[in-house]
Design goal:
Length: about 180
């Protein structure tokens, strides 16, 4: 129960700070950006790449839950984490392929929708991934600014076959995949 409450609190805090306003009232971020003379609304254009990422661009996540955000690039099997934010989220397939968003603002639900739309994961497997534990993938998150990834904090369990997926990725990827104690 304690973990569930902490998970809910974390999601509410993340949503509070990362949400773009969808109503008439501007969000906290919008008010800050307005004072700084910066538009708080997400760009409708695809972002320009500052540092080219050495990986295949798969697409863009432009939603956080149901709210529109500035498009976040998603890459397949990046060679390094240069240009990626701390705690960035990804989807690790049972083949060892890693689909990684450039920013932690791309949530697993939205990453899974993008991958399902592209036919990379089955749409049915994306529903309640944190409770049904699909065998096709593991939702992962970068540990701060390290090159280590762990399972998503959304999981309450770590099935043995997730360790098998991590073992495959540890051989295929230049990063470390490690279970965190739940």
């Amino acid at each position: 129960m304690k973990k569930s409450i902490l998970k809910i609190i974390r999601e509410v805090v993340e949503q509070f700070y990362n949400d773009w306003s969808t109503g008439d009232e501007p969000s906290l971020a919008d008010k800050y950006y307005e004072k700084q003379g910066i538009s708080g609304q997400p760009s409708q254009q695809q972002p320009q790449q500052q540092n080219p990422i050495n990986a295949e661009l798969v697409g863009y996540v432009d939603k956080q839950w149901q709210n529109t955000i500035a498009p976040i690039p998603v890459y397949k099997n990046p060679k390094t984490l240069d240009g990626f934010t701390k705690e960035t989220r990804g989807i690790l397939l049972n083949s060892g392929d890693l689909y990684l968003a450039q920013s932690y603002n791309a949530l697993h639900d939205n990453l899974l929708k993008l991958l399902a739309d592209k036919g990379i994961v089955k749409l049915a497997a994306t529903y309640s991934y944190e409770q049904n534990y699909p065998i096709d993938f593991v939702a992962v998150q970068r540990a701060f600014t390290t090159t280590t990834f762990a399972q998503s904090m959304a999981y309450d369990e770590f099935p043995p076959y997730y360790q098998e997926i991590f073992d495959i990725a540890n051989q295929k990827q230049p990063f470390k995949f490690k279970e965190i104690p739940l």
